[in-house]
Amino acid sequence: MLTDKGQLDADLVVIAIGVKPNTSFLNGTGIHLFTNGAIKVNSFMETNIKDVYAAGDCATQYHRIKERDDYIPLGTHANKQGRLAGKAMVGAPRPFQGIVGTSIIKFFDLSLGRTGLSEAEIEAQGYPYETISATLPHIAGYYPEPKNLHIRMSYHTETEQLLGAQVIGEAGVDKRIDVLATALFHHMRVSELEDLDLAYAPPYNGVWDPIQRTARRL
């Protein structure tokens, strides 16, 4: 790979430059824009100009943990916002309930999931926090071919409210990150994860789910 710093030998090059909304055509219209140029909308996808709507990768989303507008362009958000914008336009408004920043990717044999805030984001918010982590099998440990899950959870030290989580592993990541995303959406405390009634059978889980076992380290 040839760069302005010289030539580098690499087996794999990952280009991760981020996403920026293409909204320069709105300059001078009076429509309010976010710091990165995304269109600011209310919970019904309406801009500051009445009956003008925006949704999807060009628009902001309300973040339930940060308690402010944010910009995380994902297909899940775009589809929800587009549906709600349409409902508002035809007189059947339903408010957008916000996001918690959930995503997942596959990298060769590994799945990497995250939801809520990273530690850097928590520090930027100024929340006091602690982080707990664990490495646990994704199914009952005695069942054939268990795969390790690496789990991290960050929580508010004063309220125990879950603030963010990351899960990495070869199997079972999607299930756990979705449970944690649901917990974040409803502002659950880490200690409350232990009370969840989650599915159990040895091919799918242990008696205590890995996220519950991690939460017990609080």
From TrEMBL:
The lineage of its organism: Bacteria, Bacillati, Bacillota, Bacilli, Bacillales. Belongs to the class-III pyridine nucleotide-disulfide oxidoreductase family. Its cofactor is FAD. It comes from the Bacteria. Pfam families: Pyr_redox_2, Pyr_redox_dim. Residues 2-82 form the FAD/NAD(P)-binding domain. GO terms for molecular function: oxidoreductase activity. The keyword GTP-binding does not apply. Residues 104-205 form the Pyridine nucleotide-disulphide oxidoreductase dimerisation domain. Keywords: FAD, Flavoprotein, Oxidoreductase, Redox-active center. This is Pyridine nucleotide-disulfide oxidoreductase.
